[in-house]
Amino acid sequence: MATHPAVAQDTDPSVQAYRQALADKDGNPGLLMIDRGERLFRTAAGPKATTLEKCDFGLGPGVLKGAYAQLPRWFADTQRVQDLESRLVTCMVTLQGRDAKQVKTLPFANETKNQSNTDFEVITAYVAAQSDGMKLSPPTKHPKELESVKVGEALYWRQHGPMDFSCATCHAEDGKRIRLQSLFNGLNKKHTDNVMSSWPTYRVSHNAVRTMQHRMWDCHWQMRLPDIDLGSPAAVALISYLTKQAEGSTLDLPGMRR
């Protein structure tokens, strides 16, 4: 019986053709999730029966255009560097009166159970999409913003857990892959731009839109580490570092991935 050598997904012509066919944004299922996110964003909810329309993502209350492109950033009201999702939790608590612990209990859809996107995921995707076509320009003027980037870089290289893995174990060299799935190299500007400019992204294998906080959680799970808390300083620091590496790239949202 004839055997065929394994071909990485980035070089397999059939996979390339498939991805090109999906590249048309009008056919991206993530758009449906963004529409749903907009409805939820503008719908009164929580104990205070209030919408999220006055949430300040860094450019002023209610200003969404360009906000995601300038995150993570320092927020004086929380005295923290926050990314989109940690800031969204803040707004759900302060504006809508929700309990932070409850909001973070089940923020992501479980693909093994074929669950639809959670409300939290689609609202995140909607807010992010308002920066579509803009360049990533995370601010680093505040000392804490610079510190977050540096902490993220240190975490990127730190080996820990039962398998002694770090982010760099998989993402610090060209040509690496898991099975047939190519892995991006976080030290390669082109690779990092491609990834960070297309997240949140619709993941075909998950049948759901995935956010960057989910990416952090999923990578930690694959390294057999304890679940990383949504919006934790460690997760935000990693995102700060990766976003800084991709500074200047143009957002193309929602993206689409395997």
TrEMBL record:
GO molecular function: electron transfer activity; heme binding; metal ion binding; oxidoreductase activity, acting on a sulfur group of donors, cytochrome as acceptor; transferase activity
CC per GO annotation: cytochrome complex; periplasmic space
Location within or outside the cell: Periplasm
Catalysed conversion reaction: S-sulfanyl-L-cysteinyl-[SoxY protein] + thiosulfate + 2 Fe(III)-[cytochrome c] = S-(2-sulfodisulfanyl)-L-cysteinyl-[SoxY protein] + 2 Fe(II)-[cytochrome c] + 2 H(+); L-cysteinyl-[SoxY protein] + thiosulfate + 2 Fe(III)-[cytochrome c] = S-sulfosulfanyl-L-cysteinyl-[SoxY protein] + 2 Fe(II)-[cytochrome c] + 2 H(+)
Assigned keywords, A-Z: Electron transport, Heme, Iron, Metal-binding, Periplasm, Signal, Transferase, Transport
Pfam families tied to this protein: SoxA-TsdA_cyt-c (PF21342)
Cytochrome c domain ranges (all copies): 36-136
GO biological process: sulfur oxidation
Taxonomic superkingdom: Bacteria
Record EC number: 2.8.5.2
Keyword Protease: no
Coiled coil: none
InterPro entries reported in the protein's UniProt record: Cyt_c-like_dom, Cyt_c-like_dom_sf, SoxA
Subunit composition and interactions: Heterodimer of SoxA and SoxX.
Annotated family: Belongs to the SoxA family.
Name of this chain's protein: L-cysteine S-thiosulfotransferase subunit SoxA
Protein's organism: Pseudaquabacterium pictum
